[in-house]
Design a protein that fits this description.
The protein is an alpha/beta fold. It is built from 13 helices and twelve strands. It starts with a helix and ends in a 7-residue tail after the last helix. Bound molecules: nicotinamide-adenine-dinucleotide. The site of nicotinamide-adenine-dinucleotide has 24 residues, from helix 5 and helix 6.
Length: 361
């Protein structure tokens, strides 16, 4: 390995890294626990055909740090963690592989909860749940809280409204034009919310069936080519597909006043958040606006029962959280992603201080 593990842990304030190997199934996985100041770590399990252990380790660390910020800003009582499994999700999955993972999760005794992420599904965690009590996001028939795309899309809709209030002085989306990238699970639900409010929709996708499913239901949406989405004349650009789409190539094409969508890691580099800020384009930080799914799984754990209305009520607060972030950004003339990080860090710091008080037995 070339990674200096303790240096990475020090730089990113990572509490613990656990390497798991199981001979009988060939499982190789890494769990990174970034910060448990406010509660046990929470974060999904990614399965990916990593080139080598360094790449897997760095992904686990990077993703666990992101979860700390997301869990804090969403107002949950969880810290950040993430698991990666080294393997090809198309060919290397089995019941026993996920049961082996479940046993390793169980050994952490509630210090870390995990569930689905890229490359893993609810069914995989049904297997893992044979061995562990610390799993979330199982299919509803196994007691899970269901499709996270529903609260995620609702959070995106509320976040777009908050951004519109700042950029256009009114949170109504009527007659505004929104260019949506990706007609997948979240993108399609977002479009439904926007249409109900009278917005005009431009949409693109690289998978024809996904576009067709949406346009059959809503013929009024206008389809554009995937490469043309950035340069559309629109008020709002809503990325719901890939990460790193705000970059040196795409920024000069943008004609929108707002970037607000569900994709993770939208900024190719954080400096691109500063470029948007300097151009007067309001960016809703991705981990804030797309936290509806996390809110749902955190609620499932905290409340020990599933209640859709409660999850949606918590998700609605993304509107106010974003207004606070936009205000901090305006007052301090800093990019919105920096304002969001500050708010998340302040909450962790303050709760950490509160927890220092002795409360007796
Ligand atoms: P999805 O796979 O259902 O949808 C993604 C869509 O994007 C697909 O239809 C895909 O064909 C399309 N796409 C891929 N490449 C594209 C391109 N170059 N141009 C246009 N379209 C393209 O995934 P999803 O669950 O809808 O998630 C969308 C995004 O939101 C992802 O980045 C995901 O990480 C993020 N996110 C999802 C959730 C959730 O609860 N599902 C929560 C937080 C963040």
């Amino acid at each position: 390995m070339n990674v200096d593990i303790f240096k990475e842990m020090e730089d990113k304030n990572v509490e613990q890294i656990i390497f798991n190997y199981d001979k009988s199934t060939g499982l190789k996985s890494i769990i990174a626990i970034n910060d448990t100041t406010i509660g046990p770590a929470l974060g999904g399990c990614r399965m990916w055909d990593y080139e080598n252990t360094d790449e897997a380790l760095m992904d686990a660390i990077r993703l666990s740090v992101g979860m700390t910020y997301k869990c804090s800003i969403a107002g949950t009582n969880f810290g950040g963690g993430k698991t990666v499994i080294m393997g090809d999700p198309k060919t290397d999955k089995s019941e026993t592989l996920f049961r082996a993972l479940g046993r390793f999760i169980q050994m952490l005794n509630g210090r870390y909860y995990t569930g689905t992420d890229v490359g893993t599904t609810g069914e995989d965690f049904v297997h893992a749940s044979q061995e562990s009590d610390y799993l979330v996001g199982l299919p509803t028939e196994y007691g899970g809280s269901g499709d996270t795309a529903i609260p995620t899309a609702y959070g995106i809709y509320m976040g777009i409204k908050a951004a519109a209030k700042i950029s256009f002085g009114d949170d109504s989306l009527k007659d505004l034009t929104v260019a949506v990238q990706g007609a997948g699970k979240v993108g399609s639900f977002v479009v439904e919310h926007l249409l109900k409010e009278g917005a005009n929709i431009l949409i693109c996708d690289v998978v024809e069936e996904n576009l067709k499913a949406l346009t059959d239901k809503y013929p009024q949406v206008k389809v554009v080519a995937p490469d043309a989405i950035y340069e559309q004349e629109c008020d709002i650009f809503t990325p719901c597909a890939l990460g790193a789409i705000i970059n040196d190539n795409t920024i000069p094409k943008l004609k929108c006043k707002i970037v607000a969508g569900s994709a993770n890691n939208q900024l190719a580099e954080s400096r691109h958040g500063k470029v948007l800020h300097d151009m007067g384009i309001l960016y809703a930080p991705d981990y804030v606006i797309n936290s509806g799914g996390l809110i749902q799984v955190a609620d499932e754990l905290e409340m020990k029962n599933n209640n859709h209305d409660r999850v949606m009520a918590k998700t609605r607060k993304i509107y106010n959280i974003l207004l606070d972030i936009f205000e901090i950004s305006r007052k301090n003339n800093i990019p919105t992603y920096e304002a969001a990080n500050k708010l998340a860090e302040d909450r962790i710091e303050t709760i950490g201080q509160i927890k220092r008080k002795y409360v007796g037995y």
